[in-house]
Amino acid sequence: MTASTTRRTAAKSRIAAVCAIAVAGTMLLAACGDQTKNHPRSNSAQAPLADLLPAEIRDKGVIKVGSDIAYPPVEFKDKSGNTVGIDPDIGAALGKQLGVTFEFQNGTFDTLITGLRSKRYDLAMSSMTDTKDRQQGIDSETGKKVGEGVDFVDYFTAGVSNYTRKGDDQGIKTWADLCGKKIAVQRGTVSHNLAKDESKKCTGGKKIAIETFDNDLEAQTRLRSGGADAGSSDFPVAAYAVKTSGGGKDFQIVGEQVEAAPYGIAVAKGNDQLTKAVQAALDAIIKNGEYGKIISKWGVEAGAVTEAKVNGGS
């Protein structure tokens, strides 16, 4: 759920990942349980990396994670109301290494970084793109500094995909084809920023009409009902929507994936010990194979990382 700054690196569509999601489609909802309920606090004495955590967090046994839990398959509620997805699974694996429970708490995406500053959350993990603007606390639209910024531990790579109603692509293949049309997006995301940037390039008075929503599922509903010509979201989310919405009959991806960039686990500036602990835990689950199993289970192998980098975004 990339937001507040535009990615600068283009990437080709990851067809393999779409196919993997298609194969796994009927298994996704059953793939994992609610990581906030089904994983009791671990015994820190048995966790190999528990000593790396700040004592306050280690003693509490819980890491509070801010997340906009409406972004399948990365984080969402299943039919039973449990929090499931790529992020909760990775959080549970990190928790085993650190001897704590990653407790996901639902929040609006564009307030998660503020929640870190106010110490409402210890981490933010919500398909959030690691960008220099976010690292430095800069509003990408105004160029003004609005906060202290955050540090990121990068754990996945994803780009942006556009999609339309199935069989009704409106001739849309590139972002430029959206001029004179309406797009439905989640507020504050890279898709939102890309739409604004592209609209400025449109000629002949044919700007892009941009309708924004609190979450991506609302944007999908708007497109499904015919209230927009296209939608846009991070590639794993778009691919999942294409596969699952209406049994695969509602949407189709159009054009190529663009703006590939890392997702990062956000930590408030100054919390270096926590940042290093999360980085060490991520490296550990990459090396022991647990990370790869999670990524494969959700059919998004194309976005896997091979090491835990801090602030690797541009």
Instruction: Give the beta-strand count.
Output: 11
* Total DSSP helices: 10
The low-pLDDT segments are 3-42
The rough form would be described as globular
Name the assembly state: single chain
Query: Can you give the mean pLDDT?
Result: 87
The largest pleated sheet is described as:
6 strands, mixed
Distance between the termini: 16 Å
Characterise the protein shown here:
There is one protein chain. With 314 residues, the protein is an alpha/beta fold. The protein is built from ten helices and eleven strands. The strands form three sheets. Strands 6, 7, 8, 9, 10 and 11 form a six-stranded mixed beta sheet that branches. A three-stranded parallel beta sheet has the order 4-1-5. Strand 7, helix 6 and strand 8 (209-213) form a beta-alpha-beta unit. It is globular and about 60 Å long. The protein starts with 14 loop residues before the first helix and ends with a strand. 49% of the residues are buried. Residues 3-42 have low confidence and may be disordered.
Helix and strand topology:
Blueprint: H1 15-24, H2 55-60, E1 62-67, E2 76-77, E3 83-84, H3 86-98, E4 101-106, H4 112-117, E5 123-124, H5 132-136, E6 150-165, E7 182-186, H6 190-201, E8 209-213, H7 216-224, E9 230-234, H8 235-244, E10 251-268, H9 272-287, H10 290-297, E11 309-310
Parallel strand pairs: 1-4, 1-5, 7-8, 7-9
Antiparallel strand pairs: 2-3, 6-9, 6-10, 6-11
